[in-house]
Structures are given as C-alpha cells and as structure tokens.
C-alpha cells in the first residue's frame, strides 16, 4: 500500500463521516433529498464498479432492487418475519440471483448484453407478481417499522462505505486490472490468461448484491410494497443515466452525477410543478450537449487546464 | 472547485424558492396537494383527484373563503406531480411541510402513496383524510397514526359486496353457480381476488375460471375466450383502468353473454361510457353514487361547469367530500391549529354531498362499494350504510 | 387455429412497434429511447382527432405520417447529428444517444400530458370479425393488414431499390459505406425520419385497440428494444420474425397454460434465444 492509497482511504473515511452527520443538521426536507441522493449514489456507484471498466451496460438493477423490496414486504406481511432477518435473506437471494444472471450473460456483448439484462429483469418482475398471485396468498405487503428517513439514510451511508471500500480494493487488485483489460479488449484479456468469466461474474454479483440490499433497506420508507412499483424498469434506466452523467471512469464519478442531478431535479419539481417532466427533459438535453463527457470529464478538463496554467 | 460552485448555486436556487413562497399574505390558508399527473396512475388522478381539488378551492374562494374564528380566509393550493413514484412523493410531501409550510394537505392518490406519505404527514400532524386508499390494515394504521382517516372502505367490503350481488342474483334465479374470476397481478388486484376467493366458495359458487394477467398485457382476448369457454354465469374482473377498457371491449367483441359482468377500477369513469355507449348497460363496477340525490346532482353540475370535465361515478364524490370535511373542520375548530382540527374531525359529524359523515376510530363506514351502469348513469347498488341504492338489473347482452 | 390467428394478430402489433426502431438503431445507430413516446404521440393524434371530429384513425395515420417524418428528420438533423459528429466511437454515440433520447422522452411526456392527461379511449372498429368460425376484433385485423403492408413496403424498398441497398450498406458498416461514396449522413437522416414516421403510424393503429396514456411510452420502448435485439440489429426480417414469435408464444401460453405467465414466457423466449444465438436470430456475428 502506497502513501497515496492510504491518503485516499483517510479522505474517503472523513467524507463518509461527514455524510453520516447530515441527519444532525438537516430538516425533514433536506433529509429526504439526502436519502434520495444516498440511494442513487450507492446504486450508481456499485453499478459502475462492473459497468464502468467493462463498458457492459446492465439494465438489471431493478430486478435486484425489486427482489430486495419485495422479499422484505412478503416476509414481514405474509410470514411475520422480523425486518432485519428479511434484510439478510433478501440480500442473499439477490446475490444468488445476480450470480445466475451474471452466468447467463457471459456470452453476450454490446447492445445484446444491454437488452438481455432488461428482458431478464422484466421476466423476473412478471414472474414475481405471478408467484405472489398464485402461491403466497398475499393480502398486501406492508413494511411497518419504526425506522425514519434518518435511520434509513445512515444504513445507506454504511452501504456506501462498503461499496467505496470494495471499489478502492478492486482498483488495486488483480480483479480490477483484469476488468480494465476486459474493457479495452476482451480477446486480449483472454489471451493473456485472465479468467474473464470469473472476473465478470464476481463483479456483477457484487453489484447485484448491493442493489438488493438497497431495495431491502429502502422498503420501510415506502411502507406498502407494490411489486410492479419496486421492480419498475425506470429505476434501472435512472441508475445508468446518473452514473453516465457523472462519469464511470473513476470510483467517485457517479456521485458527482447523482448530487447535481438530484438537486436539479428537486429544483425543477419545486419550481415548475406543472411542467416538471417537460423541463426535466429539456434540462437533460442541455446537459448532454454541454457536458459531453459527464461531470467527471468536465472536472478533469478543468483541472488539467488549471495545472497547465500554473506551470 | 467547480463542484462546490455547483453546490452553492443549487443551494441558492433552492433557498430562493423557499423564500419566494414563505413571504405570503397571512390571511391565506395554504393547502398542499401531491398526486400524480404523469406515470402509471396519472391517467386516473386527472379524472378523480385533480379536478376536485380545483373545484373545491374555487368554490370556497368564490364564497369568500373559509371562516376561521370570525376571519374569512381564502385557500391557496400548492400542487406537485409525484410522477407515480413513491420516493418523489415523499420528497414533495416534505417540501410542502418544510419549505412551503402549508397549513393543510390533500391526501395522496393511491393506496401505496397514502401509506408511504402517512409517516410524514403524521410527523407534522396534518389531518390526513385518505380517499383512494383501500386496505384491510386500517385499524392497525389508524392506531399508528392518530391523524389518519379512511373514507373509501376496505378490501373486504368491496369483495363482499360483489359476492352479495352474486347471491342476490342467484336467489332471483338470474344466474347459477358458475363464476369466472380474473385479476390483474398487482397489489390491488391480487388482494381483492384473494379476499373474494374464500367468500365465493363459502357461498357455494363454483369458480370455473380463476386466472391472473400481468400488468400491461397487450392482448386480453385470450382471457375473455378462456372465460367464455368455461361457460360462466357471471364474470368478475379485479382490474385496473387500461385493462377494464380492454376486457370490456373484448367481452363485447366475443359476445361474452353473462347476466352479471363486473370490472373494478375505472368502470365508473365517464370515458367508459364514452367509449362503449349503450353497450355497457348493466355492467357492474367498483364504486357507485346516488344519482338521485340533489346534492350529488348539484355537485356533478358544478364539476362540469368549473373544471370542464365530468366527475366519475365513485371516488370523485369521495374526494370532494374529504375536502368538504377538511373545510368544515377548519371552520368548526375556528383555527388553523392542526391538532384542534384533527380533534374536531374525530368528534364531529359532517354534512357533505354524500350525506352525514362521521368517523369511528378514524374510519368512516359510509361508502359505496358496487355501482351499475343503468341507462347511461352509473348508479350505486351496494354500499356500506349509504341511502339510495338502486335495484340491481341483470345484464341483457351487449347492445 | 384460434391461437395461431390471435398470435399472428398480436405479432402484427409488435411488428408495428418495432419496425421504426429497427431502422433508427440499425441504420442511424441511434438507440432511441423516445420510441415509445412516438407511438403515444401517434395514438394521441388519432384519439384527439377522432373525439373532436370523428375522423377515422386510418385517415389520421396518413396525415400524421408525413408530419412525423418531417419532425423526426428535424430531430435527427438538429439534435442527434451533432452527437454523431462528436462521437469518437460507437460506444460514445450509444451513451450520448441514450442520454439525449431519454431527455426527449421526458419532454414529450410533459408535452402530451399538458395536451391530454387522461386515458386515450375511444371505439373504432371494435366489432367482431369471423375467420374460420372464430371471432376476432376487426380493429386488430385492420392493424395487422397495415403491419403487413408497411413491412412489405419496407422490405421492397430495402431490397429492390438503390437507396434501399445503400441503407442496408450503412447498416452493415458506416465507415465502409462512407468510403464507397454513400452519403451516410443523409441516408441516416432519412432512415431515422422514416423510422419515426412508421412508429407514429403504428401508434395511431394501436390506439384503436389498446388504451394508452401520456406516460405509457416506456412500455412500448422496452418491447421494441427486445424485439429488435431478438431479431438481430438492423435486419427487418429479424424484427418481423421476432414479433411473430412473441405474439404466438404469448397467445399460446395465455390459452394453454396461464394468462398470468404470458409476459414472463415472452421474456423467457427472448432470453433463451439470446443464450443460444448471442447476436439475435438474423444478426451477424460480431467480427
């Protein structure tokens, strides 16, 4: 471990600790925004762990997130299980599912991979509703807990710490090295003896695990779980878009997309309530045209310029 | 550096918007409304929810406002689109409470949204008079949230009423024992089918066809064909708006000749009769309204005159009633103090377009459960404690 | 027999959804996430004009098609072309076009909601039509006939005209066709605009038998993506075959097994096909 590595860890720990202090100062409104930001930060960052270096765009996030939320709901309502037990079961189930999906996608690349994950996620969504309809005999999925938004936020910050630590470790490991080579040229990766299948599945599984954990942790916020709501494919798209807006080249890329985007969205919703969807769409187009390489790209450009000018 | 700048400007933008609204004349009652305009429930909310918010606020203001302890105060509505996204809804609810600092709120649209927002409205102690929320957990929920009221009924009563109609028709010799039942595989549809199944069996009916279909099925003709082949006397569908239309269209085309035909949500919509005209005479649907009540007739007329749209035959009136209750409670309590208003709601009986409404353990037991299209009007035929139920007629073909 | 005909009719609907995107993605290389909104726009036009003036959706379709062609041409020329020009590689373009068309989808939803926020319901040709003693909906049959016409016209154009050949060349390789003197930017704009026009026509037809609303577009976008990927990118025959397979599978499962499993079965077929043919039914193996 070099001193640079240690420095990064220390900085990361300080920032996370600061993030964990938000509930001390924020009122309910800002807490809500912070919680939304935390949720998408964790989802986008863990998504980018796999998709960033490999350029494999996965649209399966909603499937894992949905499994998390749905299992917590069904476990608590239909089987009277304790919330934390269900969080553990749900994230394990999500992990197993992600592992299987990861295995299934191995032969695919490019746009075929993208849409395959979307199709698979949709298949899981309709299967889950069918199972709920025919076997679990559900009378509504309620997640009634005493957890407030601040509690959920803290849980998500802890998960964020886990994701960043994992990302930090992967970047320094053989696994990260392998992923980068796969992203540049998968054929080369295979020829230099990298077990591409193993590396891809491991990372895909990890991001699936995180998504299902987030789905389970956020469920108390919604109180009442509608399967078609928690499995909504919209989530997969938003996660991808936030990560792309930020930039996937670095571990902290997604968060610089999530934060300004969430604030912008909030600003639009608050001020253009009747036209918020339209204005949001236009804002999107403006971002794409004026931030060609995401927020991260713009930041790095600015830094590069600054460095040049000081020399 | 750039990042902190961005942060700052965003924060400035947000706090500027806060300032803009917090500088308000003091003699205005601010009422927040969050419901979908876009997303899966948007199409329903613009029929049932939004026009009533507009109607009620315009009527109140035209009458000079609400009388709060001797002072006339106008109402101002602050509305947000939750995009049928619970996360978005929660944020907007927080925004109403913390930024807009509204005095009162209009309940959300949809069971999931009412429950997701309940903890927030409870935290700020807003009277939360839920309308479009149908659940069997009401006693548990009202025990949890002392500010939460339910007005539209529960899952059990909706399924029970349909079984009652079947029993009535069987007793009259109109139908036999064969019932085909389908449901949309989503929260509401699954719950109602689950509640209806044991009751049908208990009442001695044969469920000859019992299938679900996924949300967003593009072609429902196989369902109607399958149901038709099972040769049913009655057809019951726990459906959502787009499938209510699609199932009925297919039933007409395939000539599903049953004496009892029921589809759930949106059967009561003006668009339903607009689409099918006289063909749907005798169709049953969730909800109902007393078409002969002068109060309701006046309400329908005002709804059309002021919003330019027709009210539906079910929750439109309930939504309006929930706002009437809020208004009367504010006037009755004579203050904007929310706890006083909540206490007033719990203790009083309200004179509404649906007759007198009062709450027992925060739940109102006066609501319609089943209505039927009879000669171009959607009439309530089954209810919990409502007066003016129309007699049931048997469906006689699709003409 | 009943299952086959119902399945084919549904397949025709799916083909209408997917034709346009197939051209837009296969030729112009734009992963158009606003595809579903174009469908809804066509439906909105049909509904609006029908309710106001009782004008047949078929007539509306003929009016809307050239408008949509022009509108989509403008979108490509002014909104998407700059992205194509600045993209260094296909991956970059994919990312940019996903972001840009996602924004467009939002903007279109916003516009449509302000025009008409309720369900687009009306009745047109909702009448029984008998084939071989079985009853089908006339509006679905009409839509199917148009799907066949549109599919045939596209196929004739692509395989028997010079422009069509050039379009196919672009879909095989943008770089190589540029080298042999094909005006790639112009052809891409035409393909994109034509794709948009076909999609809007599909929307007007579909609105006669499916109840749409302003926000429902994304459902169609996903279906279209799945169909063109299952068929193989850029091949019109693939899209047709995939659409028919989905229609038949969904109907067969609904009638023989359980209607609750229709969509799951359709996605399962899609998943299975890609597992065994990772480049889709008619797709070329990546070199």
What would you say this structure looks like, in words?
The complex is a heterotrimer of chains A (311), B (399) and C (287). Chain A is mainly alpha-helical and 311 residues long. Chain A is built from 15 helices and 2 strands. Chain A has a two-stranded antiparallel ribbon with strand order 1-2. In chain A, helix 3 runs antiparallel to helix 10 and helix 13 runs antiparallel to helix 14. Chain B starts with a helix and ends in a 15-residue tail after the last strand. A 7-stranded mixed sheet of chain B has the order 8-7-9-10-11-14-15, sandwiched between helices. With 399 residues, chain B is α/β, with parallel strands linked by helices. Helix content of chain B is 45%, strand content 21%. Chain B has 2 domains: 23-154 and 293-368, Response regulator (Rossmann fold, 3-Layer(aba) Sandwich); 155-289 and 369-384, Response regulator (Rossmann fold), CATH 3.40.50. Chain B is elongated, with a radius of gyration of 22 Å. Chain C contains 11 helices and 2 strands; from the N terminus they run ααααββααααααα. Chain C has helices at residues 2-26, 35-53, 57-86, 90-115, 138-160, 162-172, 174-179, 184-206, 217-231, 236-256, 262-276; strands spanning 128-131, 134-137. Chain C has a two-stranded antiparallel sheet. The termini of chain C are far apart. The mean pLDDT of chain C is 91. Chains in contact: A-B, A-C, B-C. The B-C interface holds B 37-40, 42-43, 46-47, 84, 182, 185, 211-214, 216-219, 221-223, 225-226, 241-242, 245-246, 249-250, 252-255, 266, 269, 271-272, 274-277 and C 2, 6, 9-10, 13, 109-110, 113, 117-119, 121-123, 126-128, 135-137, 140, 209-216, 219, 250-251, 254-255, 258-260, 262-264.
């Amino acid at each position: 471990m070099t001193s640079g590595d240690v420095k990064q860890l220390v900085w990361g720990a300080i920032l996370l600790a600061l993030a964990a202090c938000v509930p001390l100062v924020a009122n309910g409104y800002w807490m809500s925004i912070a919680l939304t930001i935390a949720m998408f930060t964790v989802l986008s960052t863990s998504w980018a762990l796999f998709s960033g270096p490999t350029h494999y765009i996965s649209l399966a996030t909603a499937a894992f997130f949905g499994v998390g939320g749905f299992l917590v709901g069904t476990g608590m309502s239909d089987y009277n299980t304790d919330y934390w037990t269900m969080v553990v079961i749900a994230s394990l189930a999500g992990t197993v599912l992600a592992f299987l999906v990861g295995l299934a996608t191995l032969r695919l690349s490019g746009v075929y991979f993208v849409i395959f994950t979307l199709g698979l996620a949709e298949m899981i969504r309709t299967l889950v509703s069918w199972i709920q309809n025919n076997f679990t005999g559900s009378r509504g999925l309620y997640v009634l807990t005493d957890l407030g938004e601040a509690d959920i936020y803290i849980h998500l910050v802890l998960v964020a710490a886990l994701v960043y630590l994992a990302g930090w470790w992967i970047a320094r490991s053989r696994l990260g090295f392998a992923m980068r080579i796969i992203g540049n040229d998968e054929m080369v990766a295979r020829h230099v003896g990298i077990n591409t299948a193993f590396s891809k599945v491991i990372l895909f599984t990890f991001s699936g695990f995180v998504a299902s954990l987030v789905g389970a942790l956020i469920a108390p916020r919604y109180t009442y779980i509608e399967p078609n709501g928690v499995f909504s494919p919209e989530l997969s798209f938003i996660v991808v878009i936030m990560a792309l807006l930020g930039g996937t080249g670095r571990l902290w890329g997604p968060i610089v997309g999530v934060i300004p985007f969430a604030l912008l969205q909030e600003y639009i919703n608050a001020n253009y309530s009747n036209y918020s969807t339209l204005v949001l769409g236009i804002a999107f187009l403006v971002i794409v045209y004026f931030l060609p390489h995401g927020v991260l790209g713009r930041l790095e450009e600015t830094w590069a310029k600054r460095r040049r000018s000081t020399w | 550096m750039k990042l902190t700048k961005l942060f700052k400007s965003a924060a400035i933008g947000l706090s500027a918007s806060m300032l803009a609204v917090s500088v308000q004349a003091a003699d205005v009652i601010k009422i927040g409304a969050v419901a979908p305009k876009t997303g899966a429930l948007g199409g329903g909310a613009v029929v049932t929810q939004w026009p009533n918010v507009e109607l009620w606020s315009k009527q109140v203001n035209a009458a000079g406002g609400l009388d709060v302890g001797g002072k006339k105060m106008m109402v101002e509505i602050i509305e947000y689109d939750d995009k049928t996204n619970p996360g978005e809804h929660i944020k907007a609810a927080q925004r109403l409470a913390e930024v807009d600092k509204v005095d009162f709120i209009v309940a959300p649209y949809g069971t999931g949204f009412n429950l997701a927002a309940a903890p927030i409205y409870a935290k700020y102690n807003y009277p939360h008079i839920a309308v479009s929320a149908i659940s069997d957990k009401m006693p548990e929920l009202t025990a949890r949230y002392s500010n939460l009221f339910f007005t539209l009924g529960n899952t059990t009563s909706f399924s029970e009423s349909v079984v009652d109609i079947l029993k009535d028709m069987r007793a009259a010799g109109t139908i036999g024992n064969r019932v085909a039942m389908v449901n949309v595989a989503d929260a509401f549809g699954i719950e109602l089918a689950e509640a209806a199944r044991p009751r049908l069996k208990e009442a001695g009916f044969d469920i000859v066809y019992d299938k679900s279909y996924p949300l967003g099925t593009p072609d429902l003709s196989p369902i109607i064909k399958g149901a038709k082949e099972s040769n049913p006397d009655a057809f019951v569908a726990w459906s959502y708006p787009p499938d209510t239309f699609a199932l009925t269209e297919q039933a007409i085309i395939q000539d599903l000749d049953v004496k009892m035909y029921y589809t759930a949500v949106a059967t009561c919509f003006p668009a339903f009769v607009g689409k099918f005209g006289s063909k749907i005479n005798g169709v049953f649907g969730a909800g109902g309204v007393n078409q002969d009540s002068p109060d309701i007739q006046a309400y329908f007329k005002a709804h059309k005159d002021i919003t330019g749209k027709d009210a539906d035959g079910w929750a439109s009136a309930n939504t309006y009633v929930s706002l009437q209750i809020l208004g009367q409670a504010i006037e009755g309590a004579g203050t904007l103090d929310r706890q006083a208003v909540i206490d007033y709601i719990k203790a009083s009986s309200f004179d509404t377009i649906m007759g007198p409404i009062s709450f027992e353990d925060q739940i109102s037991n006066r609501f319609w459960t089943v209505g039927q299209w009879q000669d171009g009007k959607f009439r309530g035929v089954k209810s919990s404690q409502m007066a003016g139920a129309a007699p049931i007629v048997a469906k006689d073909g699709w003409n | 027999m009943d299952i086959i005909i119902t399945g084919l009719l549904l397949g025709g609907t799916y083909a209408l959804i997917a034709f346009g995107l197939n051209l837009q993605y296969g030729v112009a290389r734009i992963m158009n996430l606003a595809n579903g909104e174009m469908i809804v726009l066509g439906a909105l036009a049909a509904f609006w004009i029908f309710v106001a003036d009782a004008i047949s959706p078929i007539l509306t379709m003929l009016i809307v098609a050239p408008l949509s062609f022009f509108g989509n041409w403008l979108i490509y020329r002014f909104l998407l072309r700059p992205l194509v020009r600045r993209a260094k590689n296909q991956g970059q373009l994919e990312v940019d076009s996903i972001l840009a068309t996602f924004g467009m989808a939002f903007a279109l939803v916003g516009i449509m909601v302000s025009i008409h926020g309720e369900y687009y319901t009306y009745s047109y040709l909702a009448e029984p039509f008998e084939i071989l003693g079985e009853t089908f909906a006339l509006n679905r049959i009409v839509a199917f006939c148009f799907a066949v016409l549109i599919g045939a016209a596209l196929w004739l154009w692509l395989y028997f005209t010079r422009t069509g050949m050039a379009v196919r060349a672009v879909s095989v390789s943008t770089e190589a066709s540029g080298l042999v003197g094909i005006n790639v930017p112009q052809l891409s704009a035409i393909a994109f605009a034509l794709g948009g026009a076909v999609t809007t026509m599909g929307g007007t037809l579909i609105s006669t038998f499916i109840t749409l609303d302003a926000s429902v577009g994304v459902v169609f976008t996903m279906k279209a993506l799945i169909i063109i990927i299952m068929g193989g990118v850029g091949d019109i025959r693939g899209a047709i075959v995939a659409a028919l397979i989905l229609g038949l599978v969904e109907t067969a499962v609904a009638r023989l097994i359980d209607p609750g499993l229709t969509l799951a079965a359709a996605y399962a077929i899609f998943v299975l096909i890609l597992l065994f043919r990772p480049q889709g039914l008619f797709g070329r193996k990546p070199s």
